[in-house]
Amino acid sequence: MSLSVTNLTASYGSHLVLKELSIANLEKGSFTALLGPNAAGKSTLFKSIAGLIKTQSGDVVLNDKNLKDYSKIERARDVIYLPQSFYSSLALSVFESVLVSLKQKSGWRVKPEDIQQVAEILALLNIEHLAEKNISELSGGQKQLVALARILVVKPKVILLDEPTSALDLHHQLSILTVIKKLTIERGLITIAALHDVNLAAKFCDQIILLDKGVIQTQGDAHKVLAMPILGEAYKVKTLLETGSKGQLYLDAELLEGA
Ligand SMILES: Nc1ncnc2c1ncn2[C@@H]1O[C@H](COP(=O)(O)OP(=O)(O)OP(=O)(O)O)[C@@H](O)[C@H]1O
Fold it and tell me: Where does the record place the ABC transporter domain (predicted)?
């Protein structure tokens, strides 16, 4: 299974955001970071892939089949976009919220295996202790974990995560990215996460895509992309790439003089 994007163009009215953008094959079991400055179009790209906004032209192909040829139900089940903000009825408990997400995709009758699946995903994300809490009682970071549980429980093929660590503390950033990577490999998912932390992207992702000026400026492994001047140009900073004693990459950045 692989995902590719060819010549994708998307705009809001006359504001052209994606300009014949292409992404080379992303294979199953791969975890890709989508980098790019604010307003580059990362969310727009995710929404276009998930079929949530109309595109002017271009193709998204999953498993040799154009997503235009998927039924709405099939596309919504296989390709899931997790937005930055979390939407769920505040009156539901965490357990109910994840169960509702599961049942939205597979009919209303709740079976014992559904309950089992919800329990398993809560355990996997280490949020079993929140199961009976109401969504309204959760912190921002806890809500982010529940949002992730809600999409993972439906067993999608492609997950598009919009800044999945933005509300998380350091411990939870590391633990959530570890779980996402593990699940991506175990379940053979194609995972793309928009991340603002370049060093987390280098630490966890197999490859990095840099979106700027409406197109993919580069796509490749962290060693290649982080060393490219185009990264600093996109963020309007001066970058310095260092390698730690265990081979880990560390990108330092400074504002350009006069900026
Ligand atoms: N619904 C909308 N209507 C009109 N313009 C929009 C809409 N959503 C996004 N835009 C514009 O499209 C451009 C790309 O926005 P998008 O949210 O895709 O960027 P992003 O890379 O995800 O940004 P960020 O890193 O700040 O979240 C921005 O200029 C934004 O103002």
Answer: 3-238
| Residue 27's CATH number | 3.40.50.300
179 C-alpha to ligand 1 centroid (Å): 28
Specify the residue with its C-alpha closest to ligand 1, atom 4. Answer: 12
Question: Does the beta carbon of 44 sit less than 6 angstroms from any atom of ligand 1?
Answer: yes
Nearest CA to ligand 1 atom 18: 41
User: What pLDDT, in 10s, does the model give residues 70-120?
Assistant: 998 899 989 999 998 777 777 899 999 999 999 987 778 899 999 999 999
- Closest by CA to 84, choosing from 162, 201, 200, is 162
With a 6 Å cutoff on the Cβ, whether 54 touches ligand 1 is: no
Q: How far is CA 164 from the centre of its chain?
A: 7
Q: Which domain holds residue 248?
A: 2-255
| Interhelix angle 94-104/112-124, nearest 10 degrees | 120
Residue 153 structure tokens: 């429980």
What phi and psi values does residue 55 have, to the nearest 5 degrees?
Answer: -110, 155
Asked if residue 85 has its Cβ within 6 Å of ligand 1, the reply is no
**Closest residue CA from atom 9 of ligand 1:** 44
Total count of domains within the chain: 1
Count of residues making up the chain: 259
Q: Determine the residue type at 171.
A: H
